Task: inverse folding
């Protein structure tokens, strides 16, 4: 409180200072499977002052993982918060494991805010395809793996379409497929779980 004793003409100046802008960042971790994509939403929250633009940048990614969205993304928390979304892509040979990835937030007149988030790459799930034969003949697969014959099961990456072909031995004819596919043509199996197929060869 300003108290003034009026024994002469007096003047007073009141100075009001602008509260400087500041903010916080919420940067979640990312989990991605080999051969797939994943997204990450980063939230900027104003903690004081008048909102202004904030730029978020991510750091170096592990081998086999790339940023498919723009880096250096900008938003302004005018209503209190705002968000940007980063998208990532992993090759089928991306290194499995968890990495610590750096990020930085920058805004005019505010000290940069840096930290790390975890990026975890999981292996592609694999499922086993098993072939059983009745009678004499050979079942082969494309992609390779089954030659039944001797090798009557194989593991394939999730989502792989495996085509099975049947070749009867001399004196036999191919009858039909049963199990994961039916009919008498090429057997196509989508490997989204463990599957089994029976090939029947008739005398």
Result:
């Amino acid at each position: 409180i300003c108290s003034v004793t009026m024994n002469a003409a007096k003047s007073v100046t009141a100075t009001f200072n602008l509260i400087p802008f500041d903010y916080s960042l919420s940067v979640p971790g990312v989990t991605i499977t080999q051969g797939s994509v994943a997204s990450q939403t980063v939230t900027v929250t104003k903690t004081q002052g008048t909102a202004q633009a904030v730029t978020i940048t991510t750091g170096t990614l592990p081998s086999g993982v790339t940023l498919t969205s723009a880096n250096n993304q900008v938003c302004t928390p005018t209503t209190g918060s705002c968000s940007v979304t980063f998208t990532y892509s992993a090759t089928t040979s991306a290194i499995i494991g968890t990495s610590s990835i750096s990020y930085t937030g920058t805004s005019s007149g505010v000290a940069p805010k840096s930290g790390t988030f975890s990026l975890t790459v999981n292996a592609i799930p694999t499922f086993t395809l098993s072939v059983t034969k009745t009678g004499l003949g050979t079942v082969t697969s494309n992609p390779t793996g089954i030659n039944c014959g001797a090798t009557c099961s194989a593991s394939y990456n999730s989502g792989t379409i495996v085509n099975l072909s049947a070749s009867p031995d001399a004196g036999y004819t191919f009858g039909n497929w049963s199990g994961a596919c039916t009919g008498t043509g090429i057997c196509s199996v989508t490997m989204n779980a463990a599957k089994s197929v029976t090939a029947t060869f008739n005398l």
